[in-house]
Amino acid sequence: MSILVTRPHPDNAATAENLRARGHVVLLAPVLKFEPVAFHDESEAGYGAIIVTSANAIRAVAPQLQDPGLKNLGLVGLPLFAVGEHTASVAREFGFTDVIVAGGDAASLRDRVMQAVRDKRVSKNSTLLYLAGADLSRDLGGELGAEGFSVITQTTYRMAPVKILPREVCKGFAAHGIEAVLHYSRRSARAFLDAARDEGVEISALAVPHCCLSETVASVLRDAGASQVLVAATPDENALFDALERALRTRLA
């Protein structure tokens, strides 16, 4: 029996390694594909800090950050607000040293920015650069704007749906060999359902437990008819793994 990970590459590799260390057999079906978008900073503003809600935003601009001949190198010296520890660790890998970590979701990131102003780590009069994906589930820039911040949002990447599932995954659903599915975002959950439907394994796929990083992700699975949907207590991978263990214990009971 296998655990199916729908998380995109390259983050799915670390997830698979952690699951195997816990004794699980893992199948990978990245249902979204990372595509960088050229970053052209035409703003005249001097930025006071950077906001990032995904490690992919850092990966997308990494070539420019690492090129000493480009203006964007100056971004590395700015404070960076990361949505969670995983995004923060990727930011540090690419040279950011002043990294402020939020609690794993956009709401906690917004609150972390506001707290940093109160703590005088960032000036409210400075312009914030939001490195974002093409499809936003929440208007973080607008929310901060409503609080009086000046935010410039730059799209640096998109996540394109993968239309098919790997053959071994389809066979696994057909043979009832998949114990549970892990979901990390609302878009990836939708992409998984679309691919499962196109492959003709939707009924089998919806019959197994689905473990989701947040309630927002879980709602996609429930709306599609999944009856066993578990939500991580906090929006981080360790909590998601705890939800998986709960699901597996319930199946064995």
Structure, described:
The chain has 253 residues and is of the alpha/beta class. It is built from 10 helices and 11 strands. The chain has helices at residues 11-21, 55-65, 85-93, 106-118, 140-146, 167-174, 186-199, 202-206, 215-224, 237-252; strands at 2-5, 25-28, 32-36, 47-52, 80-82, 99-101, 127-133, 150-161, 178-183, 210-212, 229-231. α2 packs parallel to α3. The protein is elongated and about 60 Å long. The two termini are 16 Å apart. The model has no long low-confidence stretch (mean pLDDT 91).
- The helix-strand sequence is EHEEEHEHEHEHEHEHHEHEH
What is the 3D shape?
Answer: elongated
* Secondary structure: number of strands: 11
The proportion of strand residues reads 15-25%
Order of strands across the biggest sheet? Answer: 3-8-7-4-5-6
Low-confidence runs of at least 5 consecutive residues: none
Q: How much is the average pLDDT? A: 91
What are its keywords?
253 residues, alpha/beta, five-stranded parallel sheet
